[in-house]
Amino acid sequence: MNGVNYGNSVLGSQGSSRLSAPTRRERLRTSTLSEIKEEARRLLVTGGPDAISLRAIAREMGMTAPAIYRYFDSLDALVEALAGDLYAELSEVVATAKQDAGDDPVTQVKAMARAFRGWSVAHPAEFALILGNPLPGIVAFQESCDEEHHPGVEFGRPFMETINALWLRERYATPPRTLMEERLAAHLEPLRASHGDQYPIEVTWAFLSGWSRLYGLVSMEVFHHLRWAVSDPGALFEMELHAYVDQFTSQKS
Amino acid sequence: MNGVNYGNSVLGSQGSSRLSAPTRRERLRTSTLSEIKEEARRLLVTGGPDAISLRAIAREMGMTAPAIYRYFDSLDALVEALAGDLYAELSEVVATAKQDAGDDPVTQVKAMARAFRGWSVAHPAEFALILGNPLPGIVAFQESCDEEHHPGVEFGRPFMETINALWLRERYATPPRTLMEERLAAHLEPLRASHGDQYPIEVTWAFLSGWSRLYGLVSMEVFHHLRWAVSDPGALFEMELHAYVDQFTSQKS
DNA sequence: TGCCATAGTTAACGCCGTTCATCTTCCTAA
DNA sequence: TTAGGAAGATGAACGGCGTTAACTATGGCA
Hints:
- Two copies of one chain form a homodimer.
- Chain A is mostly helical.
- Chain A has two domains: 1-73, Arc Repressor Mutant, subunit A (Orthogonal Bundle); 76-249, Tetracycline Repressor, domain 2, CATH 1.10.357.
- Helices cover 65% and strands 0% of the residues of chain A.
- Chain A contains eleven helices and no strands.
- Chain A has helices spanning 24-47, 54-61, 75-99, 105-122, 124-131, 136-144, 151-170, 177-183, 189-195, 201-222, 233-249.
- The structure holds a DNA duplex.
- Chains A, B: Residues 30-90 form the HTH tetR-type domain.
């Protein structure tokens, strides 16, 4: 019956203040809202995704669980909002690393990859929430989200742009263009829908290939799936990064 | 107070039958045991890892929840046993694919990779349980398991052997040996503990690099982390497989 | 001043894992 | 053949969970 319950989108009945200082009510609301999410993150960090519970959050805040329903429609909605925040945080970390890396695309790629790994290793629980096994509630969210504004798109953009700059400069080696056109190009509509046709297929391939390699290695490290093989996953990571970047800078095949 | 509760390891007080026909009791026990795990898997498939509950299993079996404690010490122990079975199943699928692929290592690598993806895509919930975000109870299991008999070791063995055969034949390109010795070799004790020193560092690198690429791509597909980019992840997979194998067969750098 | 949306409460329902005391059934050892 | 004990299964209970419904207090605006 109630309207959708999220953020400060409640827009007080009368305009109150169109753009200037928010109402006292609004200030309190946003404050409580972020306190809830902070508490949820704390639980996430200490006990994993399943440890996030309305009752625990409320207890920690000196409230009762049903009160949280004034701010989120369900536990899933809360977790979803938290996931959105974390996605933005990670995106910004990566984007900042790129900005701080100077103008060389090779340096930029390395900086972004290291920043991604750094954040992930430092925040394994958060990584699990947004990039691991998606929870049942999150799956629906991902499917319902229209492709154009999917958080993954914004996250991948700086990678994509850098790989493109690299391509313009180096014309690095890729699988044969005919093969890529034939087997891959037909299935890239989703990506085209968000990035347009501005990138050649070589760039698209290099981006997807690189992202999957980065993701695979980092998530194996974060989830301890490398413990049986390597004592310091960072060394393996640097090795792989070297191999990936080398692909772009050595002479073409 | 009770002894550890798993499998048919209860060993009836008196020897009863050392090696021949198992007791009626034992037959019933193993039958119930596997029925519990089957029901658990059914719940896993239909509702994800969190849907596995003792009460639901018991309900479906016409029992009460506490009865299951005669067979498993806890829900975590049950899930852990199920994960072990699934690991074995996946390992066998991959090993069989290799056997059916003839003698050429390149063909073998492709067959194993495709078999791995095939099983994973066909059984996403099972994949999530054994290769995704580890549940809190599973983490302890992985850490307590002595490295030598870690299921991951047996799973990776056919890959490792094939990559080695490929190396003996092709002497494919890798990162410079000096770099690998310097940065990677010092951190491979866990892998050496299980496989011995029989493999040169080039093989180890190619194996770990390939496994992480395979894992990354497949888990992104299984977890729908590629939906925003690619409509048919299989095409991207074949592309990446091509690029990986090509690395081994084209002329050395 | 009166109103009413907003924030918060208590109580309850049905899930869950787990423990405990209890009962039945079956196998074995005397 | 029978007594005893182990193994299997039960019902009741505890505390925790998400969620709903009915209810109370309060702050800000007409």
